[in-house]
Amino acid sequence: LLAKGGGLHFPSKSFIEEDIKATSQYNAERLESTIQKIREKITLRKIKVGWFRHVDKCVSGKELFEVLKQLDHKYTKGSNAFDMFDYLCDKGYVHCVNAKTLSGRFEPTENTFYRFQYDRDDVPANWTVPWTREYRNPMLVSTQLLQRVKKMFDLLLSNGEDQIDKEIPKIKRSEEYKKFVSLIGELQGVNLSQLFRKSKLLFFLNVYQAMYIHCMIEMNEKRFEKKGWLQWALSFLWTDDMTQHFYYNISGANYNLQDLKHGVLRGNKKPPWNYLRRFRDLDPRNQLPNLDEPRILLIVKDFPEIPTDIYIFHDLKDFEETINLGCKDYITKHVCVDEPLGELSLPELFRVYAVDFNTSVANTIKWIFNYLPSKERSLL
User: Fold this and answer.
1) Can you give the pLDDT at residue 101?
2) Looking at per-residue confidence, does 244 or 259 come out higher?
3) DSSP alpha helices (H): ranges in the chain?
4) Is there a contact between 59 and 119 (Cβ–Cβ < 8 Å)?
5) What is the pLDDT of residues 289-325, one digit of tens each?
6) Of 28, 43, 78, 277, which residue is least crowded by CB atoms under 10 Å?
7) CA 352 to CA 339: how far, in whole Å?
8) Gyration radius from the chain CA atoms
9) Burial class (CB in 10 A: 0-12, 13-18, 19+), 126
10) 206 with 214: CB under 8 angstroms?
11) For residue 316, how many C-alpha atoms fall within 13 Å in the half-sphere facing its CB?
12) CA angle 96, 101, 103 (to 5 degrees)
């Protein structure tokens, strides 16, 4: 429909939705590809939106409008570009940060600023790309995500652990990483009620590893961000654990790495040097209460430790084989039997989590013995 006199194009939302369904013009993959191309062309900046508030990574409506028109001949006609951004705003891909119009529609002006969902830091890390497709089986989702993470992890370590900081920017620019970021949104709507207790353990083991590597990649950039004078001054009073602010929304509930490790995978045991558990008894995030499986500690690391490897848990049949492989790899790398000195050196993990390994040193050594290589076992 054309507004009389002004020539502005204002089709109804029902018209847009019907057109989308009929032509498949705005399918999810094409949308995400278009958004990435737009982000590569625009200049993001910080804007002031109040007396004391600034918002990072914003762009004016006018610049967005002009970039899209230049990007694809389909949008040369301004009305098509307008419809596209109107749809992106409606579906949550783009947000207005400094104005709310009466119509709620996209405004291609210099004074109206927008921010992509991908650039927001006030939402879960798996909400940066809205999920618009059907939700699949949780185990299938977690294994496929971790398979992508495994490829990225191998690239991170391709030149050794000391070169990871140099490899991370390359990973962030890769298509594999962009695809991963667009797929983790599915976790927010998976139905965990269809999983049995043991299957939930496998699901959360996969998700923890995926989230851990994702956090490593994202936090590496934040470590070098410039801080304001107040943040700099406060940093002398206490250390801000950046991983506390990195979290996923899984099946409608928010979890950070500490929640997943101590609240779920350790059966809601108290974290080391803490007086309180992560979750209360009736907290819906308490998915595996009283779980006693110390082997997971050799796979789920404490940030910023570099994982030994990525272990993908496909189903219950391969659970024992996969988790035992993880234990053997960790113990082979970190436990040292020194024959000349007659000493057995254990990593700090076994002291910190002694309660998980039957508390006494003798019991811990008996537990480790089963995973030592044959040579070290005979020496011991």
Assistant:
1) 55
2) 259
3) 13-23, 28-41, 61-71, 78-91, 138-156, 164-173, 175-183, 197-222, 229-234, 257-258, 319-334, 349-352, 361-369, 374-379
4) no
5) 999 999 999 999 988 889 989 999 999 999 999 999 9
6) 43
7) 26
8) 25
9) buried
10) no
11) 6
12) 115
Work out the pLDDT band at 241, boundaries 50, 70, 90.
Answer: low
Q: With b meaning 16 or more CB within 10 Å and e meaning fewer, what string describes 10-41?
A: eeeeeebeeeeeeeeebeeeebbebbbebeee
Q: What are phi and psi of 78, to 5 degrees?
A: -55, -35
Rounded CA-CA distance 215/246 in Å is: 7
* pLDDT tens digit sequence for 107-147: 888 888 999 888 887 889 998 888 878 999 999 999 999 99
Assess whether pLDDT exceeds 60 at residue 236: no
* Nearest CA-CA partner of 377 in 323, 330, 339: 339
The CA distance from 218 to 120, in Å, is 13
Question: How many Å apart are CA 162 and CA 4, to the nearest integer?
Answer: 65
Secondary structure of 77-111 in the HEC alphabet? CHHHHHHHHHHHHHHCCEEECCCCCCCCCCCCCCC
Rounded (5°) CA angle 288-153-198: 20
What is the C-alpha separation between 321 and 276, in angstroms, rounded?
A: 34
Specify the pTM.
Answer: 0.80
Spatial contact of 219 and 230, defined as CB atoms under 8 Å apart? no
- Angle, CA 177 vertex, CA 171 and CA 183 arms, to 5°: 165
Q: ω into residue 304 within 30 of 0, thus cis?
A: yes
- Where is pLDDT greater, at 363 or 359? 363
Single-letter code of the amino acid located at 321: E
* Cα 112 to Cα 285: distance, rounded to the nearest angstrom: 39
Structure tokens at 236: 């002398």
Mean residue pLDDT across the chain: 83
What is the identity of the amino acid at 172?
Answer: K
What is the C-alpha to C-alpha distance for residues 306 and 164, in angstroms, rounded to an integer? 10
CA-based nearest residue to 298, from 286, 313, 284, 308: 308
- DSSP bridge partners of 94: 116
CA distance 143 to 308: 18
Q: Kindly state the tokens that stand for 320.
A: 């024992």
Q: What is the pLDDT of residues 182-204, one digit of tens each?
A: 899 999 999 999 999 999 999 99
